[in-house]
Amino acid sequence: MNDAVFSPGSCWKCDQCAINHRSICRGASEEALRELGRLSHLRRFEKGQVIIAQGDEADLVGNVISGIVKLTNMSMGGHQNIVGLLFPSDFFGRAYADLARFSYEAATDVTLCCMSRHAFENFLGRHPDMEHEILLSTLDELDATREWAAMNSSHTTMQRVATFFFILSRRSDHVFCDAQKRHRMTNPVIALPIGRRDIAAYLGTTPETLSRNIQTLVRKHVIRPIDTNHFELTDTKGLIEHSGETREDLVSMSRADRPNEGFTDQA
Description:
The chain is an alpha+beta fold. It has 8 helices and 14 strands. It has a 5-stranded antiparallel β-sheet with strand order 1-2-9-4-7. Strand 5 (about 70-75) and strand 6 form a beta hairpin. The longest helix has 27 residues, at about 130-155. The radius of gyration is 19 Å and the shape is globular.
């Protein structure tokens, strides 16, 4: 395990957690939340740090509090593929599995609410309501993965790019950092969590084609560049039209449980 900043569980208050109304903790009773508070601790990983390596003992589970985690799979030929991205409120790790099938890596600086897998499994045995939430979360993730796979196999590159950008706009905290200040934008901010080469591979295209599609969205005033990795979403309706999907299907793929507070959709 890579070194990380450790915060003892006694300092962590579940009732002050920014994502507990959207994570698996949303179904927890007061008793269960108190127990989770005793079992969990905060860990912070810098961008690029490996949280759980593929093939290692899967001894860590928990929720993403802030930042983005990428899941990668190393093929037999030594090629690394990005197979998923985890956003705040997503569950990471695998309960009831001894070894990790994928690597979990910090795509950005991340803060995680971590628990021992064995302790969490014992906790689920004492709290069937939380086991139910894990099942629902897993089924939601499976549905979103299937929808994403179907979209990737049948849609144009522009539709895949627009869908990906919509998902990022739903899962971002919409706070943009620059050298002078940290401020909240009027419109949603799309922050690219991984490099364009990795995004292109994830979307099944080339970096050049990805860049051309991004520039098309810029020229059509759907998005506005802030810097290389940040875009302001200025036309939500236009982005949905470019995706070839309905708004309902896009929201389902984004696994966003609540509308983005503080923003009015233009669709």
